[in-house]
Amino acid sequence: MSGLRELTYADALREALREEMLHDPTVILLGEEIGVFNGVYKVTRGLLDEFGPERVRDTPISEAAIAGAAVGLALGGMKPVAEIMYMDFLPICMDQLSTQAAKMRFMSGGQLKVPMVLRTQYSLGRQHGSQHSQFTPAWFLQVPGIKIVLPSNPHDAKGLLKSSIRDPNPVLFVESGLLYRTKGPVPEEEYLVPLGEAEVKRKGDDVTIVGVSRQVGEALTAAGTLEQAGISVEVIDVRTLQPLDLTTIVESVKRTSRLVIASDDVKTGGVGAEISASVNEKAFDYLDAPIARVACADTPIPFSPPLEREYMPSAASIVKTVTAMMGK
Amino acid sequence: MYRSMLLLRRFEEKVEELFIVKGALIGPSHLYLGQEAIAVGAMSALQPDDQTVTTYRGHGHALAKGVPANLCMAELFGKQTGNCKGLGGSMHVAIYPKVGSLYATAIVGSGIPIAAGVGLALKQKKSKNIVATFFGDGACNTGAFHEGTNLIAVWKLPVLLFCENNQYAMSTPVKKAVSSPSIAERGRSYGMETIVVDGNDVLSVYVATKMAAERARRQGEPTFLECVTYKMKGHGVYDKGEYRPKEEVEKWLSRDPILLFEKRLIDSKTMSRDELNTVSNDVNREMEEAVKFAMQGPVLPFETITDYVYARE
């Protein structure tokens, strides 16, 4: 039976890894605590037992070595999937991602290929404090050569991860820590979700909300509330930021004439700023209101649970923004 | 080997001339003058399909591994006919996987974790090939050096680490920058077989590499080789290296690796002065042709550069 099964986001990711490891013997996993410990978020549960320590490699706490080794494995003809435990640890291996992996194909004049995936997650909303919570995908928008993938639900988590592993380029695959235990339908049969295609999750006429990662769910909740207030909301899941499916977003905005971008990053210089600027370039004449961003305040993330709750963008903050935009 | 050493020397002398005298080349260019014995000794001891991960001071590694001189020169000129189509330039001229010259990085130390990964790929594939990675004394103080070296040691990867200790990281002498009594200490501290080699003696480098390569091939174990040498000129082509004591420079120039090897060849009656001259003329001719090839080549059309950002398949 297809389409009836429900899996958690973490198990969907695990299934993608397992299927790709079965499908392609060059797929190899490396990272901190992914083997014996089964992964801090259990995404790699059971894979060490099934595939052995040669293909599921526990590493030292050594992010530059993990990312660098992934780059070298890719150059050497393997398909590494490296895990960096928190997105906040990416700057430790930033050189390997932005200055090595992303530029290799270009500066070698097309001689080199770097088919690697670097999985990581952000833990905003899990009381992990300033250094274990931040969501910083926009940094990588300044680095042509690396793809950026952000699944918002179990179905896409699996399909996008499989596509990322098969992609011949470096892919930064950003998971949401808060979503690991959430469930959703995941077909039994094999499928892929292509990189570079946004998805319209809900049709609507009055305003378009583009959601990034966890904010897609918040946007859908907000859309339900707003419907009761007579506001018809279209929700788009961006799914990948590089490549960005601007066509789907612009077509929607041309119909609704209003755009809100919801994401868990800091507002200044964030994902919303980039999408907003691109829509302005393509659809300014269609807009009936200034584009709005729902994002985090320009501060580090506070630990105190009530402060963090207030800090995080939510369905309520989206509702507030859209209501103000509609003049209601 | 002699021809290869001379090719490296003449190539760099030509580059220096094209930069300084003729103004035909621009951008950073880090010459390999004085270090020829290391690249040539090492590459001669490796198999053709062994892999190298090297650096921005990589003209010598490229040529010694077999990247054709005319492609290298065209790359320095930024031409489409260069091995990286002019998109890489001097600091990435040692990227030519066709001859095992896999990668060259312009970020100090960053090649070592990458070499670990290439070594792991070879190990996973049960290949008999190995990786040689080259870096300077300056790299030994970077985080990437320590992280990469540790991983290579802890996973027992078939990697040879060549530290080309040319005594200066830009203008900073090793004594002011490296806390351990020697750089070799650092290799040993990671539990790695470590050898100190006279980096100006091509045969010493050859023998040391041969032994280390066999260990890597047979036992899958890495070796750290500190090759002690000297940068004949400054850090880059425009740096005259005036911060170095005159006596020190003179002492090292008297140990010019090419003169040392010539003397050995003549003393052992392996080659006559006439034979050496024939090689020299042949290399000079190759250099003239390389410059001609480079100057004649077209530049990649700008509208096509976006084609090189992402691979399609």
Defining traits:
A: 328 residues; alpha/beta; Rossmann fold; 2 domains; seven-stranded mixed beta sheet; five-stranded mixed beta sheet; 20% strand; globular; B: 313 residues; six-stranded parallel beta sheet; 8 strands
Any overview of this molecule?
- The complex is a heterodimer of chains A (328) and B (313).
- With 328 residues, chain A is of the alpha/beta class.
- Chain A has 2 domains: 7-185, Thiamin diphosphate (ThDP)-binding fold, Pyr/PP domains (Rossmann fold, 3-Layer(aba) Sandwich), CATH 3.40.50; 199-325, 3-Layer(aba) Sandwich (Rossmann fold).
- Chain A contains 11 helices and 14 strands.
- The radius of gyration of chain A is 20 Å and the shape is globular.
- Chain B is of the alpha/beta class and 313 residues long.
- Chain B starts with a helix and ends in a 17-residue tail after the last helix.
- In chain B, strand 7, helix 9 (202-219) and strand 8 form a beta-alpha-beta unit.
- Helices cover 46% and strands 12% of the residues of chain B.
- The interface between A and B is large, with 43 and 48 residues.
List the topology elements.
The complex is a heterodimer of chains A (328) and B (313).
Chain A: E1 6-8, H1 9-23, E2 27-31, H2 47-51, E3 56-58, H3 63-75, E4 79-84, H4 94-107, E5 117-122, H5 138-141, E6 147-149, H6 154-166, E7 171-176, E8 183-185, E9 199-202, E10 207-211, H7 215-228, E11 233-237, E12 240-242, H8 246-256, E13 259-266, H9 271-283, E14 292-296, H10 305-311, H11 315-325
Parallel strand pairs in A: 2-3, 2-4, 4-5, 5-7, 6-7, 10-11, 10-13, 13-14
Antiparallel strand pairs in A: 1-8, 6-12, 9-11
Helix pairs in contact in A: 1-6, 3-4, 7-11, 8-9
Chain B: H1 2-21, H2 36-45, E1 51-55, H3 59-65, H4 69-76, E2 101-105, H5 111-124, E3 131-136, H6 143-154, E4 159-165, E5 168-169, E6 172-173, H7 174-177, H8 183-189, E7 193-198, H9 202-219, E8 223-228, H10 246-253, H11 257-267, H12 273-296
Parallel strand pairs in B: 1-2, 1-3, 3-4, 4-8, 7-8
Antiparallel strand pairs in B: 5-6
